[in-house]
Design goal:
Layout lengths: L4 E7 L6 H14 L4 E4 L2 E2 L2 E4 L2 E4 H10 L5 H4 L2 E2 L2 H8 L5 H16 L4 E5 L14 H8 L2 E6 L7 H11 L3 E9 L1 H17 L4 E6 L7 E2 H8 L2 E2 L9 E2 L1 E4 L4 H9 L4 E6 L3 H8 L4 E7 L6 H10 L3 E3 L4 H14 L5 H14 L11
Parallel strand pairs: 1-7, 1-8, 2-7, 3-6, 8-9, 9-10, 14-15, 15-16, 16-17
Antiparallel strand pairs: 4-5, 11-13, 12-17
Helix pairs in contact: 1-2, 1-14, 10-11, 11-12
Length: 358
């Protein structure tokens, strides 16, 4: 086991491509002749099926990597709301949980060249039981790859904070989903700045539309919405959602900072809907409660080429359904993993992470 190279992949935010990158790295290592194991210590992307709550990422990893390990071995902790509540009440023992993670890791890593661990969407997840990704990396002696997005220079504060948390465990940062407009300043200014602060950077992967979000058409079909606009294009991709629960002026300010998003709001909130239509970052509106918008809003949406979707469910239920579609639609099939693998190979900067330790 001492010859196993262990890499934990974590991220600064949700939906940045961590799963695709993790599995693409593992696939590339296999194709390079290395034996590979996989583990997701904390299952956070939870779905309920046949009476069990489980994370779909280990299921995909098991299939793509041809692994024999059982689900409960690859995912020792189901980090569900129920688990969190029990932990807060003192009914989960952090020491026992840590031992379970380490024990499963030791079993899964036996005889493999590279052990890949998929971390959480945020570094602080798991703190209530002393099992953040930094804690797990320390427990299993793993190097850490930090996946981050980049839109503005202000995003680097979060990267620096993560680097301080991870310390010497940080192997480096990989920026993913970077637009053409942001790439130049990232490579010319930001990456040298980080290197000067002793934060290693492996590189930056460009934004690829097929890996970013889901189309409005797919979202509409998945949540059972009626499309109220006749001419607006439903082919745009959306990657995140915003909830319209504030006043019109505050909403407009928020929407101006949003990109590639769908707005979820009540069908009777005309001022929120109008504000959203003034923002280039809002690609579609999902109106809840079965309430049709004002004719003026519909007309404006047609002019701005922004589809309006209508659902019968309430806002809370709709938020949960949209969130599930956006999370599951990004990186959850073999095709997206293969495309990410191509990007990683083209970058040529991660080879050192895949080599077994001497």
């Amino acid at each position: 086991m001492t010859d196993t190279n262990t890499l934990l992949v974590t991220s600064t935010e949700e939906g940045i491509g961590k799963t695709a990158i993790t599995l693409a790295l593992a696939k590339q290592a296999q194709e390079s002749g290395l034996s590979v194991g996989y583990m997701k210590p904390k299952g956070t992307r939870l779905q309920s099926a046949v009476g069990k709550t489980r994370d779909e990422d280990p299921m995909l990893a098991r299939e793509l990597l041809g692994l024999d390990a059982e689900m409960h071995e690859m995912e020792p902790i189901v980090y569900s709301p129920t688990f969190i509540q029990e932990a807060i009440r003192g009914r989960e023992d952090p020491t026992e949980l840590r031992e379970r993670v380490v024990g499963n890791f030791e079993a899964l890593s036996e005889g493999v060249d590279l052990m890949v661990l998929e971390g959480s969407d945020r570094l602080e997840t798991g703190g209530i039981v002393d099992l953040t990704d930094a804690d797990i990396a320390e427990a299993v002696d793993a190097n850490v790859l930090l996946v981050s997005g980049y839109a503005t220079v202000g995003d680097i504060d979060e990267v620096l904070g993560a680097a301080r948390t991870l310390g010497d465990r940080l192997a480096g940062v990989l920026f993913n989903g970077v637009t053409d407009d942001a790439m130049e300043i990232l490579t010319d200014d930001v990456m040298p700045f980080l290197s000067g602060r002793d934060v290693p950077v492996f590189g930056a992967l460009p934004r690829v539309q097929s890996l970013a979000g889901v189309t409005v058409e797919d979202l509409s079909r998945s949540i059972g919405a009626d499309v109220l606009t006749n001419e607006a294009d439903t082919g745009a991709h959306v990657e995140r959602f915003s909830v319209g629960a504030m006043g019109g002026s505050a909403a407009l300010e928020q929407f101006r900072r949003t990109r590639e998003a769908v707005l979820i709001t009540g069908g009777d909130r005309s001022e929120i809907q109008t504000a959203a239509l003034e923002s280039s970052g809002i690609k579609a509106l999902v109106l809840t409660g079965g309430l049709r918008p004002a004719s003026a809003v519909l007309g404006r949406a047609e002019e701005e080429n922004v589809p309006i979707l209508l659902v019968q469910s309430d806002t809370r239920t709709t938020i949960d359904r949209v969130e599930d579609v956006l999370r599951s639609g990004r990186t959850r099939d073999e095709g997206t993993v293969e495309r990410m693998q191509e990007l990683l190979v083209d970058s040529g900067s991660l080879d050192s992470l895949l080599e077994p330790e001497e």
